[in-house]
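hi!! sorry for the late reply, been swamped w classes. u asked for the two structures so here they r. pasted raw, havent cleaned anything up. first the sequence of the first protein and right below it the tokens
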Amino acid sequence: MATNWSADPRCPAHLRAEVEARALSFPPAFLNEPANGEVFENVDLCRERLQGFAFTQGFAIVQTSGSMTQQRPRFYFQCIYYGRKTRNTRDLEEHVERDENGEITTRRKQEATNINVRDCSYHL
């Protein structure tokens, strides 16, 4: 797979060579789906390997939890598009509200935010 990988046909032509060069710069194992039993020296190497695979598949991985303090360190990773709804850990209002002078009266300061939620269930 490593020698004949090519960018998705929908990749813009001006980025195709750069995307393909980046993907082919990964160790060949990074291009294969992660398998049970893979062992890594540290979480950074694990994250790098997972991001390499995700990059070649057209998505990204985020770390959702983990701990080094347990007897067996463990970390959880998910697709960047995981979940059914956007997390609102700061309990912000749904929309920006303004008074009659146009001044923002809510804790939310931006109306247009990026929402990546697409209910992807890919996790490790």
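now the second protein. again sequence first, tokens right under
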Amino acid sequence: MKIEQLHKLFIQCNSVCTDTRKIKKNDLFFALKGENFNGNTYAEQALKKGAKYAVVDEASFNTSSKTILVENVLETLQNLASYHRTYLNVPIIALTGSNGKTTTKELINATLSQKYKTVATIGNLNNHIGVPLTLLSMSKDTEIGIVEMGANHLKEIEFLCHIAKPDYGYITNFGKAHLEGFGGIEGVIKGKSEMFDFLINNDKTIFVNGNDSIQIEKTKHANRFVFGENHLGLDIIINFIEAEPFVKSEYNKLEIESQLIGDYNFNNIAAAIAIGHYFKVEDRDIKTAIENYTPTNNRSQIIQRSSNTIILDAYNANPTSMRAALLNFEKQPNTKKIAFLGDMFELGKDAEKEHQNITDLATSLNIEDVVLIGENFFKTETALSSTKRFKYFDDLKDWLNGCNLENTSVLIKASRGMALERILEFI
């Protein structure tokens, strides 16, 4: 079946679904395959649960007038999404970067939705499946789409850009994330910059953080809108005031106080302000959007437990974000401080060095107790006697059961796979 024909059927459906547990009536089901499952085997179940059609790629499952046989289900999903994006011709803002992508995306969406009907990536569904699903969730009512793009190898951002065909783009930063896949920091810069390449080659617009010299250099021949703190060559000036603990910024004589901690969040806020300004959102509405945004999903959340203040930042971690979190944590008010740091994943050959670097930093700061969890942190060395190491979380649990924290500031930071939010059960 040609994509044009499939698109006509898709328009008749309510939404796209790839999980039979979430099927709703009149969905279009795509029978994706994974390492441990074959979506084709669920096609009949999807139809029984109310799906209008099921897209399969194995002939033995093409058993009904409601099944659609294609050569490859995943490629068909991607091609349909790209076709639908062209069909709608909605302005698309693409977003990538090493740190802060999801927070920045949520801030941009909060700001633009003050004036427009927006659709944005849900959570961090930012890969070769998530991007198509985001595009297919847009309708003729959508006025602006905001698409987050993640990658851990070269050519992934380029591929996602060819699916989404963004009109605008922003890269949050270039940090030490996914070093194993990218082969080092230079690979990270090259991989993330694939978005710049696409936008420049297609004469589109790039939002640029004027405080980032790499961004400035790579976009010097681009159509760009530059924001930053007070210096020459900016299209809009946004100044940092403080982060004690919440980030305050100043824009167009307005003071904006967010619910985000850490000065590293200033750039994320500034990007949302700049993009809101570019799309002519009223200043007061920009202020409202930023001030009302509350972080969720283990991202820089502030949690109060009796006399303890917890910074839960356990959604993800890499050397760049870990360093920023620690430096910010040291600035917290003068209570006792304890940092729980879990392993950072996907660092490849740099894992030993980067975990040791973070250990050295953490133990040099004004933090009374540093608790390291995971196989990589367990291997690190330090002369500081107050540093605790636990190879596995179960080992940490025994220590936590005897640890009665009072009047303490707590940082919990690790890669997602460590699931360090489990510490909350003991505080």
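hope this helps!! also noticed smth abt the second:
The two ends are 57 Å apart (CA to CA).
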